[in-house]
Design goal:
Oligomer: single chain
CATH architecture of the largest domain: 2-Layer Sandwich
CATH superfamily of the largest domain: Chloramphenicol acetyltransferase-like domain
Number of strands: 9
Order of helices and strands: HHHHEHEHEEEHEEHHHHHEEHH
Strand content: 5-15%
Largest sheet: 4 strands, mixed
Number of domains: 3
Helix content: 40-55%
């Protein structure tokens, strides 16, 4: 057994003790375990009546000096509980007493902050809560590195302490509304596997199957760490496949770039004896910015903007999306001549490539549906420029908003694209509503797009 494998087994053993759950070595697609639910002592107000009476009787029998000590301890405990149950302590200061009681009952004094959900997070949880592998981010990368499991675990824990999003949980069940809860400490789940006895073709197939199994496992958003890292050792020297999995409600493309930098480049610096300090990230400023958004006014915009739209209909050949995962890819390359035509069209109509492609797609879809207007969805970054450091924050920011394309008879293409771009600017100014909220304000039973 080589030294790297010994280190892997050692850190795996440490992880088992730290996380208090058994992690089995995977040899097939089965065997994914889930951490047990943590149990918490009942809050003082929840103690059984007989227990309270026994405590009172015991205290009454104590000498006066000991009575004062016990009462002082009780007051201290009550004061600590009062602080935890004070809504003004949290960014989501309007949280109801019932919801706050439920959150403190789940996590106790581990709660650091509580946030209301962003529009995109609400959308993903509304759409995907019944399909555990929906809105699932997963990255596979292969690295040729000297791998030290203990050093990598140390780096991952440091990043987790720095990122609020990685210490988060989403609480939805038995709540008046869902919240994101930031915990004082939550370690990512790291699994190490030795597949060095397989040749590279078998190795790649095994990793592919593991990826699919990982997606099927999904995340329990209340209980699981929201970053899962699986590391597979291959038969080639210092060559590993590394899979990062996260729920999309808690991460996006920009966040993944920040995480990859701080985790992997930071690990390389650590291995070379270079100490790089991580700056603590907080969502608080952005959350305060979102509090200033007038959602009612934005919903009024959407109600007027989409007032002439009928219930959505599927395109010919389109199937209802059940949000289940099916691994596939489609690559459509553009020829040089086609790229030249698109570039010239952008100049002619004075629009961005994004607007040009939106318009062309809308014209095609409207023709297929035999309508003079059509609505489809587009993804927004959800990072408002008014918050200066928004591009440096990790978390789930993306949202999806409707885009309406109207085909007017005899309208010139230049006027069509100009109006489309103006409309999209207005849509972006009102992009803090979830698709579910827009559907409700329109009175639609089906999704807007």
């Amino acid at each position: 057994m080589d030294l790297v494998l010994q280190n892997m087994l050692k850190v795996t053993g440490d992880m088992i003790r730290e996380n208090a759950h058994t992690m089995e070595r995977l040899s097939d697609l089965s065997g994914w375990g889930t951490p047990p639910v943590k149990s918490f002592r009942p809050l003082p107000s929840q103690a059984p009546k007989e227990q309270k009476e026994a405590v009172v009787e015991a205290v009454q029998k104590l000498p006066e000096k000991k009575k004062r000590t016990v009462r002082a301890k009780e007051r201290k405990e009550e004061k600590g509980l009062d602080v935890l149950l004070d809504p003004s302590r949290y960014t989501a200061s309007n949280i109801s007493g019932e919801d706050l009681d439920h959150i403190i009952g789940l996590y106790g004094s581990s709660v650091e902050d509580i946030y209301e959900l962003g529009a995109g997070q609400r959308w993903m949880l509304e759409e995907g809560r019944h399909v555990k592998n929906a809105f699932f981010l997963q990255i596979l990368t292969k690295a040729v590195i000297p791998f030290d499991p203990a050093a990598f675990r140390h780096r991952a824990d440091e990043v987790s302490r720095s990122y609020e999003s990685l210490r988060s949980a989403f609480v939805m069940d038995s709540m008046q509304q869902p919240y994101r809860v930031v915990l004082k400490d939550r370690q990512p789940e790291i699994n190490c596997f030795d597949l060095s006895l397989l040749d590279m073709e078998e190795f790649d197939e095994k990793v592919r199957r593991f990826m699919e199994s990982d997606r099927q496992r999904g995340f329990n958003l209340e209980k699981d760490p929201l970053l899962r890292i699986s590391i597979y050792k291959s038969c080639e020297k210092d060559t590993y496949a590394i899979i990062l999995s996260q729920p999309h409600a808690n991460s996006d493309g920009t966040s993944l770039g920040l995480l990859m930098k701080d985790l992997f480049i930071g690990y390389a610096l650590d291995m070379n004896g270079i100490d790089e300090k991580l700056e603590a990230q907080t969502y608080q400023n952005y959350a305060e910015h979102l509090k200033q958004v007038d959602t009612k006014e934005e919903l009024s915009f959407w109600k007027q903007y989409l007032s002439d739209m009928a219930e959505d209909q599927l395109l010919p050949g389109q199937k209802v999306n059940n949000l289940d995962y099916d691994s596939t890819s489609l690559f459509v390359p553009f020829e040089e001549e086609e790229l030249s035509i698109l570039k010239e069209a952008r100049k002619t109509y004075g629009v961005t490539q994004f607007t040009l492609m939106q318009g062309l797609w809308g014209l095609m879809a409207a023709k297929l549906k035999k309508r003079d207007h059509i609505v489809f969805g587009t993804v927004t970054a959800g990072r408002d420029a008014e918050v200066s450091d928004s591009m440096m924050l990790a978390g789930g920011f993306v949202n999806a908003i409707p885009v309406k394309v109207t085909c007017r008879p005899k309208e010139r293409l230049s006027d069509f694209f100009k109006q489309l771009q103006l409309d999209f600017v207005q849509c972006m100014k009102n992009s803090h509503c979830s698709p579910g909220q827009i559907k409700d304000v329109l009175g639609h039973k089906e999704n807007v797009f």
